[in-house]
Design brief:
Largest sheet: 3 strands, antiparallel
Order of helices and strands: HHHEEE
Strand order of the largest sheet: 2-1-3
Shape: globular
Oligomer: single chain
Number of domains: 1
């Protein structure tokens, strides 16, 4: 999974990363600092979501 850094969480979920490789998925979301205003997913980095908004 060398392209993990180029996909958003939406793309990873569509490809079922959370099922196929939960440890890698958890690294993308912990500790959450941003969330997507579009779908509501939270992530450790802004670039991991489509419409990032910093968590307050």
């Amino acid at each position: 999974m060398s392209d993990n850094n180029h996909k958003t969480l939406c793309a990873h979920v569509e490809n079922e990363l959370q099922v196929k490789d939960p440890q890698t998925y958890m690294k993308l979301i912990q500790p959450a600092t941003h969330y997507c205003e579009g779908c509501g997913r939270s992530a450790a980095k802004a670039e991991n979501v489509c419409k990032p908004k910093k968590l307050a």
